[in-house]
Amino acid sequence: MTDIIGFLGAGQMGEPMVRRLLDAGHDVRLYARKEEVRMRLGAAGAYLADSVADMARQADILVVCPFSDAQLTELAAGPDGFMANAKDSAVVVSHTTGTVGTLAKIRADHPDGPELVDAPVSGSADDIAAGKLTVLLGGEEQVLARVEAAVGAYADPIIRTGPFGSALNVKLVNNLLFAANAQLAAAAVELGEHLGIGSRELLDAIALCSGRSHALASIGKVGGVETFDEFASPFLRKDVAACTAAAEDAGVDLGWLAAVVEAGPIPGLGRRKG
Q1: Quick check: helix, strand or coil at residue 140?
Q2: Of the candidates 10, 91, 107, the residue with the CA atom closest to the CA atom of residue 49
Q3: Is 213 within 8 Å of 186 (Cβ atoms)?
Q4: pLDDT tens for residues 26-75?
Q5: Distance between CA atoms of residues 179 and 269, nearest Å
Q6: Residue 235 pLDDT level (bands cut at 50, 70, 90)
Q7: Cα dist. 125→12, 88, 154, 228 in Å?
């Protein structure tokens, strides 16, 4: 393994990615602002870079995992950002679930800079720790081939979706569908309560029937609609907003999926209060 892996965004999802990369024998150059993260991952074997620019100058493959488009843009932009300091031959793998427009602008602002791959993920920190994260990859075939060994340290399956931008669009449609399914599952729980059925009994029963879904299983796993709203809605709300922005950029009507998300009973996602 000759590629040096640079890493930015060692948070809830990023830290277990770094650990999997190290366990697989990769040379990881990490920049992190939080001292406790630096201490933990330095002790695990990561080389600690002094800045974003320092990390970018050393890396052959840069894996970036910030939470939002705004954070991604902040890390990428300016004379101290990773785009200005990366090797021309490097590849940037972006795990941020955002819009194609943001990633395309970063690329357009640095036409002579590194290649970009959109690589949104589906799964949890536990999936990463098990090496079972789902990663979608969008970009030129030869570029994707360069990064698959690194991404494969924590991902299985890795799904090539087509040209640059396609992975983000697949992910955004997936997230909108999941949010709509969550609203439908919550509406089913609400209907069951009106019929005198306890939510736990309903969720357990439908989990074994034809109406089951990943969203319904997720609601059941955390203990009900209210807990799901508390923990999942902040992330889903960001992703739905990104999907709405992407649709506006493309001039596409989100149709019934958006209508279900907006009108459903989970208050953190829709307009209607439960």
Answers
A1: coil
A2: 10
A3: no
A4: 999 999 999 999 999 999 999 999 999 999 999 999 999 998 899 999 99
A5: 8
A6: confident
A7: 7, 32, 10, 17
